[in-house]
């Protein structure tokens, strides 16, 4: 297994199937900014609402090979094992394919994810127990509370600024470590004070 973080903004994702599992995968895709097409003769009310709100495109039919053209990432999420196998066959060997009922047929599995802005914590149990993955995700959400959203935005701003600073790498390293001081996690005021000092140094 080799974990990566995919950039899906504006990329085309095809989800075959319109049930509760498909809906969960769709939610993750929308959070990542993907353009989602759902191919399924039936869909849950939640998926229908997303379609009505133009958040996803829903083709109300069974999947055919033509549906995968242009897809960057594909989910075989029907309740029909043969239909899911067919998705894999037509997608070909060089595309990202997730298969919800026969995971080894696909090229990747979906972890449980805790998001705090730029901080993305993902948990996989290699198929041992999705419920354990979910539980550990919830533990991580408690350990890294909402403050981390603003905090990681602060760190991102400061690091981008420091990258442009024409100073010695020692000086940069010192600040890169200083900004990790615990005092900055919860205090917007302290973050702002650090930014102000940095803005004076790096113009
Ligand atoms: C291999 C993988 C492939 C993939 O889907 O990518 C896979 C496969 C299967 N899941 C099954 C069942 C369940 N899956 C969940 C939940 C989640 N499943 C997710 C991922 C994965 N599931 C991948 C591995 C992840 C890992 O290794 O840790 C999560 C983490 C992410 C997500 O789906 O977004 C999401 C929780 C996060 C959230 O809620 O956010 C629940 C619990 C629930 O629904 O509350 C149950 C019922 C309990 C049980 O069975 O354990 C079955 C049997 C189906 C059947 O019985 O027919 C298979 C098929 C098989 O194992 O062969
Ligand atoms: N990976 C995971 O996280 C989990 C996987 N599963 C597996 O996922 C499968 C799907 O689960 P649910 O979403 O709960 O099922 P569901 O019964 O709610 O939905 C199945 C959907 O597939 C559609 N479908 C059937 N044949 C199709 C075809 N040829 N082309 C396009 N769409 C088609 C149906 O119209 C329906 O919308 C289950 O059979 C189970 O084995 C179940 C729980 C978790």
Automatic annotation (TrEMBL):
Keyword entries, A-Z: NAD, Oxidoreductase, Porphyrin biosynthesis
Pfam families, sorted: NAD_binding_7, SirC_C, Sirohm_synth_M
Recorded GO MF terms: ferrochelatase activity; precorrin-2 dehydrogenase activity
EC number of this enzyme: 1.3.1.76
Residue ranges of every copy of the Siroheme synthase central domain listed in the record: 116-140
GO biological process: siroheme biosynthetic process
SUPFAM superfamilies on file: NAD(P)-binding Rossmann-fold domains (SSF51735), Siroheme synthase middle domains-like (SSF75615)
Pathway: Porphyrin-containing compound metabolism; siroheme biosynthesis; sirohydrochlorin from precorrin-2: step 1/1
InterPro entries: Met8-like, NAD(P)-bd_dom_sf, SirC_C, Sirohaem_synthase_central, Sirohaem_synthase_N
Enzyme class: oxidoreductase
Catalytic activity: precorrin-2 + NAD(+) = sirohydrochlorin + NADH + 2 H(+)
Protein's name according to its UniProt entry: precorrin-2 dehydrogenase
Upper classification of the organism: Bacteria, Bacillati, Bacillota, Bacilli, Bacillales
């Amino acid at each position: 297994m080799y974990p990566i973080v995919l950039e899906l903004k504006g990329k085309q994702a095809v989800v075959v199937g319109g049930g509760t599992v498909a809906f969960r995968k769709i939610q993750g895709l929308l959070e990542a900014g993907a353009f989602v097409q759902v191919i399924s003769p039936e869909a849950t009310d939640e998926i229908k609402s997303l379609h009505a709100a133009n958040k996803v495109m829903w083709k109300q039919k069974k999947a055919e090979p033509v549906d995968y053209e242009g897809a960057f990432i594909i989910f075989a999420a029907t309740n029909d094992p043969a239909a899911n196998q067919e998705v894999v066959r037509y997608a070909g060997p060089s595309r990202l394919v997730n298969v919800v009922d026969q995971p080894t047929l696909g090229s990747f599995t979906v972890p449980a994810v805790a998001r705090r802005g730029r901080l993305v914590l993902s948990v996989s149990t290699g198929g041992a127990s999705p419920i354990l993955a979910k539980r550990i995700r919830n533990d991580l959400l408690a350990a890294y509370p909402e403050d981390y959203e603003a905090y990681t935005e602060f760190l991102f701003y400061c690091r981008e600024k420091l990258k442009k600073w024409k100073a010695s790498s020692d000086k940069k390293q010192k600040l890169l470590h200083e900004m990790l001081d615990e005092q900055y996690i919860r205090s917007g005021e302290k973050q702002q004070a650090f930014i102000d000092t940095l803005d004076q140094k790096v113009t």
